[in-house]
Amino acid sequence: MRREAGDAGPEGLTPGARKILDAASALFYERGITAVGVDLIAKEAGTTKKTLYDRFGGKDALIAAYLRERDRRWRSWLTSWVDTQAPGTGTGPGPGPGERLLATFDALAEWTRQHNPRGCGFVNAAAELPDPAHPGRRVINEQKLWLRGYLYELAVASGADEPDRLADELALLHEGAVVLRGLAVVDDPVARARALAAQSLERALSRPRRGVPPTADTPPGDRSA
User: Fold this and answer.
1) pLDDT tens string 70-83
2) How far is CA 33 from CA 36, 124, 203, in A?
3) Is the pTM of this model over 0.85?
């Protein structure tokens, strides 16, 4: 019986599916999605194509599972880093306002050093998956929207003026830093992005906060500063 593992969490995978996903994840990131076929994945996982199809249903579902797993790891890395290195909200004892926002760039710097030698796995995958209906594209879009939303929540908690605008600016700096690091165009782009983020944050914190404070779960487009 075929087992759909594309939406399963790490704890929901059989040992065989875990080996396939680990092998596919390494190959997709290191060599590219289109360059890697199911024969090579099965060989690297020490299994058969039949098992791969039984566990995942096909390459497209396996691609989505690879991206979903990478997304889980990044979210856990980022939120854990911020909570550990800049605990609290910045409104009481501990980190000052905005330190949690800047900590996201410190987390990004270490993530790129350890896990992103070839640039952002999601940006790389998006370039290889032009079809918006591909299941992997949905994962990519959700990941980028989540990051922007997380930055928005931190911006609201910092007390910054126009947190919606600040979240947009910091999301652009995050994404640009990762892309430029992968291309080796700018020396230490994450550090440069952090410095620019600090300037944006300083401006946002120096202005009186206008309007009714938005709530962190308000969707983009419906927020008021």
Assistant:
1) 999 999 999 999 99
2) 6, 9, 41
3) no
